[in-house]
Amino acid sequence: MKDAQPSTIYLKDYQAPDYWIDTTHLTFDLHEDHTLVTAVLQMRLNEAVNCGEALPALTLHGEDLDLVSLHRDGEELENDRYQLVKGSLTLPVEQPRFQLQIVTRIRPQENTSLEGLYKSNGMFCTQCEAEGFRKITYYLDRPDVMSVFTTKVIASQARYPVLLANGNAIDRGELDNDRHYVTWEDPFKKPSYLFALVAGDLEYVEDHFTTMNGREVTLRLFTESHNIHKCDHAMISLKKSMKWDEDVYGREYDLDIFMIVAVDHFNMGAMENKGLNIFNSSCVLASPETATDATYQKIEAIVAHEYFHNWSGNRVTCRDWFQLSLKEGFTVFRDAEFSADMNSRGVKRIQDASVLRTAQFAEDAGPMAHPIRPESFIEISNFYTLTVYEKGCEVVRMIHTLLGADKFRKGTDLYFDRHDGEAATCEDFVKAMEDASGVDLTQFRNWYSQSGTPVVTVTDRYEAETGDYHLTIAQSCPATPGQEHKKPFHIPLGLALLDEQGQLLPLNAEGDKEQVLSIKQSEETFVFKGCKSKPLPSLLRNFSAPVRVRYDYSKDDLVFLMKHDTDSFNRWDACQRLGVMAIEQLVERFDEQAEQAVDSQLLDAFGVLIADPKLEHAVKAEMLCLPTEASLAEQAEVIKPLAIVAARKKVKQAIAETHSAALLALYNQLSHERDYCPEAADIAERTLKNVCLGYLAALDDAESLQRMAAQYNGASNMTDRRAALGCIVDARHRDEHLVEQVLTDFYDRYKDDANVMDGWFAVQSGSAELGTVEKVQALMQHDSFDPTSPNKLRSLIGGFTGNMARFHTTGGAGYEFLADRVIELDKQNPQVASRVMMPLTRWKKFEPVASGLMKKALQRIKAVHDLSTDVYEVVNKSL
Ligand code: 0A1
Ligand code: ZN
């Protein structure tokens, strides 16, 4: 419990701090039942804020701390000289510069929230973003207070041979009682959220990187010894990232050493602590036998993301947490471009746009909708969202599009130059972009302050006599909580026009065949001259803005775009739109229970697609995937979960039956033995092969079952084994015995690997066939289920809540199960509790019965006494 009466914090109330902390000396004395933390802080009045006579009292943040002693300039302050209330320590100040010495006792062993200092599998580690440092010592735990940190870590040599903190190691030695210490010094000023410490029995792999100015950097990746063979991919990814940031942004690494530590218990993916990144082990460890292609790509992206934060986040940090997207949106953009350069650019764009349109659009349409720069919050941990990260990335991408690559680079150079060593704002970023480019971004700033997904409605008219083509573009944005009316956005809209042969038409006198229209008005019309017949518009090319586009495409139009468009994203999108139309048609008449035929145009189009010899494997694989259930739900007016599941399944089956021979031929063509390699071309082949396997599985016959079993048993890598496992589990109605057999086999092979076991839980709880609430409950009791591990909770509970067929099953048992878990988890780990409950917050969009039951489950959570601020905020905003 963080706060008795959770209060709302507003961006408009931001005030600079009264005091700065120039230096921070920390000593951690780590013991088995407690840790003693001694903090020595050199404090200085912030004269810019306080020029009055009296020195303001100093209030430091602190949570769950035992204050052992407090000294100011060497004088001990007894407890009548300071005030200790929940969450803070206030003391009088007599000099503009003074030293504080604060000793606190904390209990990392009992810290289940995984914020601050805690233990994971016997090792000590920290997570301080956003406000975890206050669980370590009393401090100005806010990102605009930047300090030079020195950290001495003392612990048992036998239990914790490795002692790490930020920066460079400057001293080490042995002490009495088998204890030892290492002192670390980080020369760069940083806010407390970037502090990190690790103590454990770890091994490391080491490599080196020579920077563009010839500096040697040691790279070390630490894990428990049994995982040491799984670090290669992360190390390669790190070196690629370091080189890429030099080449593309001119950014060089700045310390002598860069360290990554893998920990099993971690609330998020990873954390960019200065010089000492801490990673969820699932985002760093990989071997061909244990990690899928998707995991390999995730690792590459997250290693890059955290590394890139060294500049976009650490050297230039955020003034306050409302500016979170300043570092996150920008860094996601950087890592997305890195991944696009390392893999298939077209596919990366499709995947990112797909996540955004499915999950971020849903967030923007839900009760927690917020702008990428929120205006208020109760609990900042609830704002590490798809909106701040992914939409924030899209906003930076739009700046890139509007400025062009060269001016964008000038803008980032200016931004880093101007604000190096500072805590900056989103406004500082936009201003640097404007100043460096001369492009006016005044109206563009609405993207930072307005929430909701804009709707761009496009209509057109062709005048045969003149050859003029009129394209009218109107924009609007639905109301969102606290924002009834929106101002028009500045939207870059990628456009091309296709003639009847599928050729791109010149759009202007210069002959450009692609253009980015700069849309600023609520409605505007563009006229294109010299068209011999009515062209077909290719709109929002490369997903040039995070908006919904409405244009009245006929099915013929979509089939035409699928074949002829030169933009991978739009080819894929045409395919998705066709899929949505076909599935929605069945959903609408689901209640009538009448036999309905699947749209023949879709079936024909998929036939052409499967046979297309020229299409890149990776793009073909994406295009062949029908819209997901989640994306269909997002696009539905009212969500009918069971109808969506049934309709989608039926369409998939129809595609499989109509094109079984071609799918099988493609599957066979792609099934050849070779050594595993996580490179783009190989990944694309495996992905396409497994998409085919998925369709063949939908045939639901003995032959395909055999094929899946053969792939499972013969797999030489986890990608193929997992794909087959998923198909087999979903075929449970055919062969229950086989399902049990492969699940047992998988368990026996991987039971000692926590990250692989996450997948074993997820595949069961996420299965339409297997994942009943009773099954999930039983799995929670399984020996390999660790209820204190966020990864396990996410796999099992998250797998289940994403299982549309089962979570929304009649009677609401799934909702009640989730409410029970949230209530229970809230005492243990509020961040995870508030995240897993998100699916319930969408209750208003569901059909009446489901909706009412979801609301009831939320009300039960709301009625609980002493909710954490995390769950309190989400439940109250969603009811
Ligand atoms: N800054 C990290 C994400 C992160 C945020 C919060 C955390 O704990 C509450 C942990 C990690 C990133 O963007 O990767
Ligand atoms: Zn980040």
UniProtKB/TrEMBL annotation:
SUPFAM superfamilies: Leukotriene A4 hydrolase N-terminal domain, Metalloproteases ('zincins'), catalytic domain. It holds the Pfam family DUF3458_C. Its cofactor is Zn(2+). Residues 237-446 form the Peptidase M1 membrane alanine aminopeptidase domain. Its EC number is 3.4.11.2. It catalyses: Release of an N-terminal amino acid, Xaa-|-Yaa- from a peptide, amide or arylamide. Xaa is preferably Ala, but may be most amino acids including Pro (slow action). When a terminal hydrophobic residue is followed by a prolyl residue, the two may be released as an intact Xaa-Pro dipeptide. Belongs to the peptidase M1 family. This is Aminopeptidase N. The gene is pepN.
